[in-house]
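Re: beginner question about structure tokens

> Can someone show what the tokenized structure looks like for a real chain? I only ever see the sequence side.

Sure, here's an example I had lying around. Input first:
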Amino acid sequence: MTTAEPELTAETSATTGMIDVAGLRKSIRNGARTVDILKGLDFSIPRGQFAAIMGSSGSGKSTLLGLLAGLDTPSSGTVSLNGTAISYLAEDELAQVRGRTIGFVFQSYQLIPTLTALENVLLPWELNADAPQAEGMARARGLLVSVGLGDRMDHYPVQLSGGEQQRVALARAFVLRPPIVLADEPTGNLDSANGSHVLELLLNLNKTEGTTLVLVTHDPVLAGYADRRIVLKDGVMLSDELNEAPAVFVA
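And the corresponding structure tokens:
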């Protein structure tokens, strides 16, 4: 991990939003050539906003999401989450911040195959929560009921359809009541019916839980539900617009 800009710590960060990005750059070496993936992004996402990050393949949107999640380190610039500058934290500090701050929803579900649906949802609680496990168990069960899987809690991922697995992933993302949820093409592996159902559940959970939601998508229809649309092209911000009339989901 790079040691650049070591003065940036949780104690010295200065932020204004739930997510703050300042001068964010990411470059990689490709043989003798340096490839600039992100070229100096600046933006702030306030608490409770639903922001969609859009762009074609190669625009840098997935790289940006990885940096927001603390899964990668920028070449320069900073990412701050809920007042904590995460970009140059030590790995153990970063894991603690990530565990209590972020919920993830991946395109490929990322469920643990040897755990039941209930155990998959409960896992972040067991790893990060200070509250009793009984409270976590109640929370996990309630979330599975809310996503329509009350009768599938003891099933393993292989026994669930793709749509059901993604609903388990949604419940897992929200189990710790994280202030931020990051979603990477959450309906990308689903057919239109299951994709619509998962989208409806994600929007409902986000509204009821009051989280800040950042969703990476190439789908303008899905982005139409967002409060804000950030469009990337070749590593720069092509546009950043508030959606004055976000679409309302109709089942």
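Each token stands for a local structural state, so reading them left to right follows the chain. Confidence is low (pLDDT under 50) at residues 1-15.
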